[in-house]
Design brief:
Helix content: over 70%
CATH topology of the largest domain: Tetracycline Repressor, domain 2
Order of helices and strands: HHHHHHHH
Low-confidence stretches: 7-22
Number of helices: 8
Distance between the termini: 101 Å
CATH superfamily of the largest domain: Tetracycline Repressor, domain 2
Length: 206
């Protein structure tokens, strides 16, 4: 009887090697995306949102094609920067709660909120000019920010540092009010001083 040829089997290491190779571009792409948003935020802060996007790619050390692959339009980049700021602010609540006592965690987070307001004010005109408007974008950000401040205030109430009848959003409205009413360049420093005043007034009586 003629012998049948042995079945050909591929080495088990080959698919693993291919998988590793396939993951590397994805990790690089994520790093490029993060770098582009980092540079874009700094550039928007310094020069406004109308800067040439090619300059942002150059400062980020990537090709123009890479920028447009991640962000096909200026609106897409501006929206991504805003979303990243909201997500960073929301995530900071849990991080600060692990690292600080309740009142200090709340204080540090409110100071970060002032920085967030500064970024939002810079790019708000561009966001408002987007096709369809930013209403859904703002609605999502409000939910994330509200959940963050609620958790921090609840923790401070449980520790006895904040009175239980405090409305968390009132703290943020006060800080946002300073940003909206003050046209001076040092409004952020003023708002951060207001953080301590607000928290002092939020302590339990007696």
């Amino acid at each position: 009887m003629a012998r049948l040829p042995k079945p050909v089997t591929e080495p088990v290491t080959e698919p693993v090697s291919k998988a590793v190779t396939a993951r590397k571009p994805r990790a690089d792409a994520l790093r490029n995306r993060d770098r582009l948003m980092e540079v874009a935020k700094a550039t928007f802060t310094r020069a406004g949102t109308e800067i040439n996007l090619d300059d942002i790619a150059k400062q980020a050390g990537v090709g123009v094609g890479t920028l447009y692959r991640h962000f096909p339009t200026r609106d897409a980049l501006i929206e991504a920067v805003y979303r990243a700021e909201v997500e960073r602010l929301a995530a900071a609540a849990a991080r600060l709660s692990l690292a600080h006592a309740p009142l200090e965690a709340l204080r540090e987070w409110m100071r970060l909120f002032v920085d967030y307001i500064g970024t939002k004010n810079l790019i708000a005109p561009a966001l408002n000019a987007m096709v369809g408007g930013p209403s859904q974008l703002y609605a999502t950000s409000r939910e994330l920010v509200k959940a963050a401040i609620d958790s921090l205030v609840r923790r401070a109430v449980e520790s006895g540092d904040i009175r239980p009848d405090l409305e968390p959003l009132d703290l943020l409205r006060a800080l946002a009010g300073v940003a909206n009413l003050s046209a001076s360049p040092d409004w952020e420093a003023s708002a951060k001083r207001l953080v301590d005043i607000l928290l002092l007034g939020s302590k339990p009586a007696g």
